Structures are given as structure tokens and as C-alpha cells.
Amino acid sequence: MIRYRTVSVGDHELFYREAGKPEHPTLLLLHGFPTSSHMFRDLIPLLADRFHLVAPDLPGFGFTTAKEGSNYKYSFDNLANTIEQFTDKIGVRRYGIYVFDYGAPVGFRLAASRPDRVTAIISQNGNAYEEGLSQGWNPIQAYWREPTAANRAALRAFLTPETTRWQYVEGVFDQQLVAPESYALDSALLARPGNDEIQLDLFLDYASNVALYPKFHAYFAKHQPPFLATWGKNDPFFLPPGAEAFRRDLPNADIRFFDTGHFALETHASEIARAIVDFWEKKVSSRSRQVA
């Protein structure tokens, strides 16, 4: 059974989904733009018999809400700090991270900050290498170089319902497999008053993630966390070379490609769940037994 909870964390009432027994290995599921923990709705039931699953909505997304009078600055550093506080608040001390899109720089910050707490990393189109960035990032990178009002306004095209739907269906071999409520919910939540400015602020701050790539690489190289990539190979934003690049710092990385787009769970949740179970048994549980 999935429980839908909220907890007070700093400036936010943070919404999260939780399933599975706490005595099982914990997986912290971190979503990306423009979605929420809703993206894990199919994956969670497939893993709940083996894992304790916790999927929060990041500040600015989903059903997480800012408290009245909040002056929270929407940056990736602050998103990571909030999620770190969240794990402390709910008593999660050791966990694997499943990261997607924005969830990757949030999760990699957590891992670099507290490497002893992260047992494994699963990256579904969660990038950490510049060769993973497609030309789809060009308008956002232009805003990084010149944060003008005109360049900011140009990015509003990323917030339209049409673009949100496109992100879901681009690269999918059969668009009829993508549930319309997924992108409809994202569009409705993006349209909340003031949310557009939050998203534009995060577009600008994404440059901080690229600047931190060397730090993330150093963490990977030093700590060698068990690593699985489950990558939609037709992703218009994060290219397959970004997945392959993890092997530079993690030679034992398990890299798997699926014939789908950015939102791989929309079409391949069962296949990804099986990959996670296989990876966990071969790379994570066996490592834990060796340490013991």
C-alpha cells in the first residue's frame, strides 16, 4: 500500500509517497522537471515487496507547498538542503537514490555531502557529464551566459502544456502508451500562480549543477557507489553519451538503455523494476554481505 504523507520541513509542507517495510533497503526516489513523485506511481508497487520507498515532491513541484510568508530561494543547493533535512526528519539514515532529471543534481549533492549514507545510485536520465547535454539545452545555456529579461522570457515556452506533453511523448515508439493524466497533472501544477517564476529561477540556477560536475565525478571516483543507469535512449535532453560517461569514474557501472524517451517509466516501468532488482542483488546486496 502507498501512503500519501506531508511533513513540515523548513519553509515547506513537504508531500511524499511512502511504501514498503522500513526494515527493507530504502530507496529515495527523486523526480525532475516538470513532474513530481507522481512519475513513480507505476514503479513503487513493483518494488514495494523488496524495498522501503520514499518519494518526495521537491519544493516548487507537485503537492509540496511553501508556508505563508516564505522567502525561500529556489536554487538546487536549497532543494538539496531541504531534501537532506527531510531525510533527517522522517528518520531515514541509509538509502539508495533513484534520480531523474533535476533529481540527479539534488541526489548527487546529497551523496557528496553524506557519502556514508548513500548505498547505491540508480540514474534514469539523470545527467552528470557535459556530453550528456543535447542541443535542447541551448536556450537555457544562453540564459546562463546572458541572464537578460529577453532570454528569461524565451524560456517560458518550456512551461506550456504543449511542451510538457512533448517532453513525455518525444522518442516514444508508441505515444498511446503514455497516460495523458501524467502531463496534464504536470501542466496544471506548473500553472499555479507564481510557479512560472520558480521554474525560471531554477532554469538559471541549473548552471550551478554543471559547475559541480567535477565535484560529483570526484565523489564517484573516490567512493565507487554501486551504480545503475536506466536510460531512455531517445531522450531529447540527456543523450546516451551522458550515461556512458559514468564509466569514466565508475568502471563497474551497469548501463542499460531502453527504447523510449525522457520519461522512461511511462513506458518501461516493469523492465526498469526488474533491472533494479537484478542490480541490487548482484551489486548492492553482495557488496553489503562482503563488508559484513
Number of helices: 12
Radius of gyration over all CA atoms, rounded: 18 Å
- Give the biggest sheet: 9 strands, mixed
- Kindly name the structural category: alpha/beta
Estimate the helix proportion, in percent: 40-55%
Strand content: 15-25%
Mean pLDDT: 96
Distance between the termini: 31 Å
Query: Which word captures the global form?
Result: globular
Find the count of extended strands (DSSP E, 2+ residues): 9
Label this structure with key terms.
single chain; alpha/beta; 292 residues
Structural account:
The chain is of the alpha/beta class. Helix content is 44%, strand content 17%. The chain is built from twelve helices and nine strands. Strands 1, 2, 3, 4, 5, 6, 7, 8 and 9 form a nine-stranded mixed sheet that branches. β6, α3 and β7 form a beta-alpha-beta unit. α2 packs across α3 and α4 packs across α8. The longest helix is centred in the C-terminal third of the chain and has 27 residues. The relative contact order is 0.15. The model has no long low-confidence stretch (mean pLDDT 96).
